[in-house]
């Protein structure tokens, strides 16, 4: 059997308007989500590394395609040239200080030495005039890839100190374990304790602990 029901012309008009409205809203929502994902152009190619060894930085840019401001950053960085420099290559920060030796400062020429491990602004190029106590900020920021601190992999990028893990990834918290293994769990080596006799010129023996 066929069931039939009657709908007034007014009710049908309201129902049709509801369907059209729902369809338009869904289309606008889908289009809005699509626009949100395509506000940015594709990322560009990576720039040349700021250093040839010792760990540097490279960047990639993208362009905002929207008339309004886009959410997010238009530049991203990664580390590069993560190989040790030759022993005679010198310190990267020291090289930047030395580059100012042929520039007069207050009417004089100086040989400049690096000021390392500045707790207040590690990414400014602060140098000390050789043989004096004169310390000068010769540049507001060091070159990208300069270590923030001498005993750390963290590096300066665009004047800000960025965290670098032992895996040489920016923003990584990876650290070496007691065995010197990056992200290790300490199971690849063992702690050894013992004593040995050390003979001194005095003829006395002395116990020492070794690990």
Automatic annotation (TrEMBL):
<dbReference type="InterPro" id="IPR045371">
    <property type="entry name" value="ADAMTS_CR_3"/>
</dbReference>
<feature type="disulfide bond">
    <location>
        <begin position="49"/>
        <end position="80"/>
    </location>
</feature>
<keyword id="KW-1015">Disulfide bond</keyword>
<keyword id="KW-0964">Secreted</keyword>
<dbReference type="Pfam" id="PF00090">
    <property type="entry name" value="TSP_1"/>
</dbReference>
<dbReference type="GO" id="GO:0005576">
    <property type="term" value="C:extracellular region"/>
</dbReference>
<feature type="disulfide bond">
    <location>
        <begin position="64"/>
        <end position="70"/>
    </location>
</feature>
<feature type="domain" description="ADAMTS/ADAMTS-like cysteine-rich">
    <location>
        <begin position="116"/>
        <end position="189"/>
    </location>
</feature>
<dbReference type="Pfam" id="PF19236">
    <property type="entry name" value="ADAMTS_CR_3"/>
</dbReference>
<dbReference type="GO" id="GO:0030198">
    <property type="term" value="P:extracellular matrix organization"/>
</dbReference>
<dbReference type="InterPro" id="IPR036383">
    <property type="entry name" value="TSP1_rpt_sf"/>
</dbReference>
<dbReference type="InterPro" id="IPR050439">
    <property type="entry name" value="ADAMTS_ADAMTS-like"/>
</dbReference>
<protein>
    <recommendedName>
        <fullName>ADAMTS/ADAMTS-like cysteine-rich domain-containing protein</fullName>
    </recommendedName>
</protein>
<dbReference type="GO" id="GO:0031012">
    <property type="term" value="C:extracellular matrix"/>
</dbReference>
<feature type="disulfide bond">
    <location>
        <begin position="53"/>
        <end position="85"/>
    </location>
</feature>
<dbReference type="InterPro" id="IPR000884">
    <property type="entry name" value="TSP1_rpt"/>
</dbReference>
<dbReference type="InterPro" id="IPR013273">
    <property type="entry name" value="ADAMTS/ADAMTS-like"/>
</dbReference>
